[in-house]
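Help wanted!
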Amino acid sequence: MTATVSYDDVEVGTELPSKTFPIQRSNLVQYAGASGDFNVIHWNERVAKSVGLPNVIAHGMFTMAEASRVLTEWVGDPGAVVDYGVRFTKPVVVPDDDAGASLEVSGKVTEKLDARRVAVELTARSGDDKVLGRAKAVLQLA
Amino acid sequence: MSAADAVGRTYPKTAPYEVGREKIREFAEAIGDLNPAYLDPAAAQKLGHPDVIAPPTFPIIFTMRSTGAAVFDPDLEMDYARVVHGEQRFVYERPVRAGDRLVCATEIEDVKVRAGSIFLSMRTDVTTEDGEPVLAAYALIVSRAADEES
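Answered by r_m:
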């Protein structure tokens, strides 16, 4: 594995470049097809509302995947992500309009570990909601 | 039985899932991550991988099939209409790559029942057909109590 970030250049508190991801219904349909998760609450507004949701919501795994791009794009080699976990705290509600939803993700190095690895904590928000909790990763640096 | 008695229960290993280059491409495009390591074997080889690798969350495709055996286990009495995904984690020995033939083995690590909601913690060990460990996937699935407002 060949991360492009060197362990020696990173300190606790080093920030990863933040990213904002627009999310529209078409993204959810595409993700449903690629992942095989066709749960109707991710594409059918009538059903989503009937089970008490405000509207169609993004797959938690889609949100987790989008957030991982902050890791993979920073570290260079996606194979350097050796541990990645999240808690799904709030759903990302995706209305059927031109704007859709927006996911803002930032990350910060929280610890330097042995074997040239670092711990990173991610923050993911949509609107006023923190949508991922305990979003943590371990990256193998060069 | 009560759901808590299922702690330690294991489910039969799945048939091998064969990781294809085009499936990785499809998944990478769906999450908008066009890293060359996912798309171009030559670029992946430059990073030291034998073939294109998969994004970190790709294994949800085949681990979900394996954990489904537990979620749909009638003894657990999960109400699938009220099931939500609580947590997910992947711990890697090495990246998943095209050409891998991967087998999943799911075990129930913990079950908690609180106010009628069931919290099911599962670990899925993913190995190659030959038994080489590749990753472990941890999932917390919650079946919300029927009387709870969504």
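OP: Thanks! One thing I noticed: Chain A touches chain B through 38 residues (CB under 8 Å).
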